[in-house]
Amino acid sequence: MISENEINDEKNLDVGEKDEMYVGTAIATAETPSEEPVLAESINLWQQGQLLETTIDDLSNSGDGVGRWEGRVIFVPDTVVGDRISVRLVRVKPQYAYGKLHKILEPSSHRVRPGCIVADKCGGCQWQHIDYAYQREAKRNLVMQDLERIGGFSNPPVDAMLSILEETSLEETGIGYRNKVTYPLARSATKQVQAGYYQKGTHQLINLNQCPIQDVRLNPLLAEVKQDLYKRGWSIYSEEQHRGKLRHLGLRIGRRTGEILLTLVSTDGNLQGLEEQAEEWLGRYPELVGVSVNVNRDRGNAIFGKETRCIAGQSYLQEEFAGLKFHIQPTTFFQVFTEQAEALLLAIAAELNLQGHEILVDAYCGIGTLTLPLAKQVQQAIGLEVQPEAVEQAQANAELNGITNTTFQTGTVEALLGQLEVQPDIVLLDPPRKGCDRKVIDTLLKLLPARIVYVSCNPSTLARDLKLLCQGGYRLTRVRPADFFPQTAHVECVAFLVRDEA
Q: Does residue 151 contact residue 91 with C-beta atoms inside 8 Å?
């Protein structure tokens, strides 16, 4: 799963390392073999600031287009396979470079007009210029490539992309799906309060009054709340100076219930007039059920701090998921694409074909989003989670739904997994982007549950961990990619493994 703080600064997700790994294979398959003599003219052109022409023939793990020139590789954002372009080199290494799109000479058949007017500036989406059918195909290819290159799997069993957008009115644009947004705040040159996403590769804020990937019911709040913040005169946090109060504006909606939470992230929870403003918001927006303030005094790009206080209304919204009711708080991790998460859950249940006698362990269980629906189909479900607040919410959600065959334990998965007092039949893994700690893999290879289900938001670490599990006695039977983040290069996967009895 991707937590809010992990996805905040995608530039720090080991993109460079993954691209360098990509280069090894890309050069080997380049049209011009790299061992051919390199002309002096070519060397002179392979410099920062030079303009080159290339055709994009692949997409990298980070979502950039990949072009080739004289046996070298060029990574170019805002491109798609089939584009013939001129590119300006901005960062040059001996065998690869990063470039900036200068001009599209011949557009790809997969290129479309973005549905957002700031798509060329905003860093929130990477792929609005790519038609949605090809986005799905490209993401499946990224999963295949990681499983082959990192995992060492030959012809891995990867299904077609699971995407509910194929069957909805959103298919043409793939937008309007996010149930949660958290916008950095800034001031304009005229001192107006701005909220939006950072421009690609910078910390320059792109101001938004609406966002096409968020639930449309949040748009009125985004535009109007900024004006209220301006009128209140609350100071805006400066990352460079580490001064000011307001850092982020958070909005969250129950896709099924319509209930909304509004959260201000501030360095100081004591904002003059906040209670009055919160009551005013509750009166203005009937769907708004709670206003909270989260206190984050630390430097860095983590969005939320540890302290959250409800100012008016209630501290949670209620959502319906997989036939169950969930109470979700401002900082709770919950998949941002509700309907797609449900589709993935159904795919997991269908593949497992549960008979009611199984013991299921859900590692990294969060608030029980997967634990509780699956608990209804097994004898016993055990959730493991490091965050005490999430465990409390999971227990409350179990009670809310009258589910009594679940227990939740607080601690790291690497510590708790080896202390289980039962032998699990199935272990469900849903780790953060960094994947499983090696101790978790080692413990699984000692426990040897009959089946392992691995949900991942990072194909690279998924491939790494699957390789270790298969070297230790498991067989990969199926991988199902799912599109939890349309218009971006991010892809979710679920992998199914069985213990090899041979």
A: no
For residue 24, what pLDDT is reported?
52
What is the DSSP code (8-state) at residue 165? G
Phi, psi of 387 (to 5 degrees): -90, 115
Contacts of 329 (CB under 8 A, 6+ apart): 261, 308, 315, 316, 389, 393
Q: Lowest-pLDDT range, 176-185, 199-208, 241-250?
A: 199-208
Looking at residues 32-56, what average pLDDT do you find?
A: 71
H or E stretch at 476: strand 474-482
Q: How far apart are CA 16 and CA 102, in angstroms?
A: 22
Which pLDDT belongs to residue 262?
98
Task: Look at strands 426-429 and 451-456 and give their pairing.
Answer: parallel
Q: Which phi and psi angles does 135 have, rounded to 5°?
A: -55, -45
> What pLDDT was estimated at residue 303?
92
* Percent of the chain clearing pLDDT 90 (strictly above): 79
Residues 457 and 10: their CA atoms lie apart, in Å, by: 13
Catalytic residue among 211, 436, 457, 493: 457
The closest alpha carbon to 371, from 357, 358, 384, belongs to 384
Query: What pLDDT, on the 0 to 100 scale, is given for residue 239?
Result: 84
How big is the CA angle at 338 (ends 336 and 344), to the nearest 5 degrees?
105
- From CA 186, how far away is CA 125, in angstroms rounded? 20
The structure tokens listed for 307 are: 């302290």
Please answer whether residues 103 and 78 qualify as being in contact, where contact means their C-beta atoms are separated by less than 8 angstroms. Answer: no
Residue 125: active-site member: no
Mean pLDDT, the chain, whole residue set: 89
- Token look-up 């997991």 returns 348
Tokens, residue 337: 């694409």
Both tokens of residue 424? Answer: 């699990």
Task: End-to-end CA distance of the chain: give it in Å, rounded.
Answer: 33
Phi/psi of residue 205, nearest 5 degrees: -75, 135
- Can you read off the two tokens belonging to residue 110? 């997969």
**Contact predicate 50/41, CB 8 Å:** no
Q: Given the DSSP bridges, would you call strands 451-456 and 359-363 parallel, antiparallel or unpaired?
A: unpaired
DSSP letter (8 states) at residue 453? E
Cα 362 from Cα 427, distance rounded (Å) = 6
| Amino acid, res. 85 | I
Looking up tokens 């499946």 gives: 140
Distances (CA, A) of 204 to 10, 16, 126, 184, 227: 15, 22, 17, 10, 20
The residue among 449, 454, 407 whose CA lies nearest residue 424 is: 449
User: What string of DSSP letters covers 199-243?
Assistant: BTTSS-EEE-S--TTB-GGGHHHHHHHHHHHHHHT--B-BTTTTB
Give the pLDDT band (50/70/90) at residue 11: very low
Tokens 């892809």 appear where? 491
On the question of pLDDT at 368 being above 60, the answer is yes
CA-to-CA separations, 459 to 146, 148, 154, 444, 494, in angstroms, rounded: 6, 11, 16, 20, 10
